[in-house]
């Protein structure tokens, strides 16, 4: 099989490519140049898209003896991921750019180009498993629960999964690093990338401020009383506790949390923690890793990349997914993804558009 291995410059994608070679596939490595400023060179950056990473990927490909190319997808990435990220925050929502990158870049732009060039599959270093089920290819959780990335892959369709390879899904990260060292890959001890790749310093609020400028508003309590002023509503997210800079303490002396963000009036409402409890989640733009479920289904859902799963009942009506939680969840923000699971199998995902407080159900 002809395989295009997406090589980020990290240890995971390097070992995934190595395993594809070992499995007998005809492998070509490709590094995705996603930065609009290719001259940037940030040693120790928190992301995964620097010139240093590109060079690490090329060195790994040389060790493996496979052809290697760099694809410039900076403009596509900026339009589909960065601009989406900024506009979602401006609208008072909390997006996950990794899901959008998987949906729009790695398994759309890259996969489409790969298939057009005659490749059979795209291989990545994601920690997830692919299982051939009775209705086609299924996406399952990885063996290593601490590294499982099935949540950020919950946007993939059955057709995309049919042309994907995730060689690391049955391994633990410690095993992958040992294997990389044994194969002579210099990235064996390279730290994992983390945070948002296009916010290399980890300062999301600062990044958004540069993109959107100051948009002052007020912080109010549930009665509407003004507690403080802020520079921008987009700097807050539902469930946030720290950095509120309130002028006076709550009457009961307990901490206050962000309950909602109104982007038009730039009003941030805060209140006690128990007001964060959500009993129902509504999502739109569903993406199914297989046939859409019919009627109401019992499942477990995950609402954060590394969050716990929650027992739920989901019902699908057209492009709307309604999820009733068995036990309330705290701090669910519009814009996040809700991913549905049947045991380890990913059923699909939707973008959270609305939540209903547990106390009102």
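Q: What amino acid sequence fits the structure above?
A:
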């Amino acid at each position: 099989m002809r395989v295009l291995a997406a090589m980020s410059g990290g240890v995971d994608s390097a070992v995934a490519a190595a395993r594809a070679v070992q499995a007998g596939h005809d492998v070509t490595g490709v590094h995705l140049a996603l930065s609009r400023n290719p001259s940037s060179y940030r040693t120790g950056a928190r992301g995964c898209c620097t010139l240093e990473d590109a060079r690490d990927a090329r060195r790994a490909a040389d060790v493996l003896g496979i052809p290697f190319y760099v694809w410039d997808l900076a403009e596509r990435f900026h339009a589909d991921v960065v601009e989406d990220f900024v506009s979602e925050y401006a609208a008072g929502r909390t997006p996950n750019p990794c899901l959008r990158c998987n949906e729009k870049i790695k398994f759309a732009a890259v996969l489409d180009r790969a298939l057009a060039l005659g490749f059979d599959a795209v291989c990545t270093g994601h920690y997830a498993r692919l299982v051939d089920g009775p209705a086609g290819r299924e996406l399952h959780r990885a063996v290593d629960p601490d590294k499982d990335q099935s949540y950020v892959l919950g946007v993939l369709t059955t057709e995309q999964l049919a042309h994907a390879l995730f060689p690391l899904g049955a391994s633990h990260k410690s095993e992958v690093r040992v294997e990389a060292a044994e194969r002579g890959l210099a990235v064996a001890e390279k730290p994992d990338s983390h945070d948002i790749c296009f916010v290399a310093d980890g300062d999301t609020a600062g990044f958004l401020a540069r993109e959107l400028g100051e948009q002052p508003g007020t912080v109010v309590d549930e009665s509407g009383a003004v507690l403080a002023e802020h520079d921008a509503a987009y700097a807050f997210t539902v469930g946030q506790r720290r950095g509120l800079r309130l002028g006076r303490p709550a009457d009961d002396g307990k901490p206050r949390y962000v309950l909602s963000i109104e982007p038009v009036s730039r009003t941030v409402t805060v209140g006690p923690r128990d007001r964060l409890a959500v009993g129902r989640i509504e999502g739109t733009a569903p993406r199914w890793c297989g046939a859409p479920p019919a009627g109401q289904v019992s499942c477990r859902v995950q609402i954060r990349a590394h969050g716990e799963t929650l027992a739920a009942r989901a019902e699908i009506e057209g492009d709307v997914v309604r999820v009733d939680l068995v036990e309330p969840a705290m701090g669910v923000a519009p814009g996040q993804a809700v991913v549905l699971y049947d045991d380890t199998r990913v059923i699909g995902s939707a973008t959270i558009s609305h939540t209903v407080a547990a106390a009102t159900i």
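Q: And what stands out in the fold?
A: The mean pLDDT is 92.
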